[in-house]
Amino acid sequence: MELNIALNTIIYLMIFLFPGLIARKFYFSSVHSKQFSQGNLFERFLWTMLTSLLMLGLVSLLFFISNTILDLPLLDSLSYQTIKETFNTLSSNQLPEQGEIEDTYGDFFIFIFALYLFSAIFGGLAYLFNAKAIKLFKYNNYWEKIFNGTYKEKPEENLVFGYAEADVLIDTNEKTKLYSGKVTDYFLSQENNQLETIVLTEVYRYKIINDINGEYIDTLKKEIPGHNFCLNHDKILNINFTYVYQEKSKNRFYKNFGLGINILFYILTIILFLFVFLKEEYLFTSWIKKIIFSLITWILLKLIFQCLKVKINGLLNKNFLKGNMIAGIVFAIPYLWLFKIIDWYWIIPIEIIALIIFGAINKKNKK
User: Same domain, yes or no, for 64 and 106?
Assistant: First the structure.
């Protein structure tokens, strides 16, 4: 009974929850990504369920049009009867026949993949239309507008917003302190959309120098060492923002280059999954190996493109590059099993040994 409930639950999640989550994740992307986990949990669950049903209906309609109107037989082994028999087989804790697996389950996984891919595309297009074009539904993140200078008119037509600097007055219980720096990120409360933490770089602290009579003499500006300086909302008294603008041509080049990298990454991701899952003779015949190979390759592509984007923004450093290289090596170890260089049971020991070695090297470098 427990196995039946768990299996049914997995099927329900795959079909009626995951598509909505994927669409929601792509809809709340880029500068609006902080809204993905905000709001009432029950309300988010209902919207996710409704979105999943919409995605399921649209994908089913596309396959129906392809099979009946366009006369392109796609997933022709799937029907109401086969889906019902498959669900009853799995729910009764029975293994399906080999012929049934070959005829039906391959098309079923292709349908699930198409459902997830369509959900991602739908969410991404909805974001582009709403955030860039029609702006039908307002995002509930007013902090993003404050941090990116939306409420401030451009000083000149050939300038665009570059970044924001913040002067933050902090209450330390004994006295107040003033910090200033470049805003790199911020975090909001999931419950009320209020600012929780602001992250600064290139931070300075200001200290007022008085004489023995308490009269003001001067203000010292001291640089705070470190990469990221975090300030929590419960200590913040007020924040003063200064917006720094850049020339449009320079800013546009970096943005367009970053957009091009993102588009290239998504294209390579789609090609990867299409070749691996739609081509039976491509590399692997086992579904487990196909899934593992796709996930590992996708993660490695993500690490490479992440380094490229950071390099473009001028923020690439040795620690970031070294961390990504270590992560890439660790994630690439299962390739040794996938391409039959070693047996599968050697993967976990090699992963553990690699993590121990990299951890020791990192600890030695810190000293």
Answer: yes
pTM given for the model: 0.52
Number of compact structural domains in the chain: 3
CA 265, 262, 163 angle in degrees (round to 5)? 150
* Cβ atoms < 10 Å from Cβ of 339: 12
Q: Give yes or no: residues 231 and 303 share one domain.
A: no
Q: Which of 164, 146, 131, 150 is nearest to 32 (CA)?
A: 131
Range of the domain at 53: 1-140
State percent of the chain over pLDDT 90: 0
**Do 171 and 62 have their domain in common?**
no
Residue 200 phi, psi dihedral angles, 5° rounding: -120, 150
Query: What is the amino acid identity at position 5?
Result: I
Inter-residue contact 107 to 83 (CB < 8 Å): no
Tens-place pLDDT, residues 221-239? 888 888 888 888 888 888 8
Domain check: are 364 and 283 in the same one?
Answer: yes
